[in-house]
Amino acid sequence: GLKVRAFLYVGTGTFLITSIYQLVIFSLSYSFLKWIVGLLVGILLIYIAANFETRRTQITALLRNISDEFANWD
Questions:
Q1: pTM beyond cutoff 0.70
Q2: Residue 73: its pLDDT value, please?
């Protein structure tokens, strides 16, 4: 079979680096919107943490299944 795991990692890494670069350019151009984006990201992180606390067993089981699938991926 095809070995695509390396391409998946490289593509994900490139996407993250490009996204961070665009956020830096965005924050240098529009300083007020940087505060709005920071506020929205903070609210999103609080929501994710609260959601994780209420559904801890379901999320850990899901992550365990996904990691098992990646471990058995050919």
A1: no
A2: 80
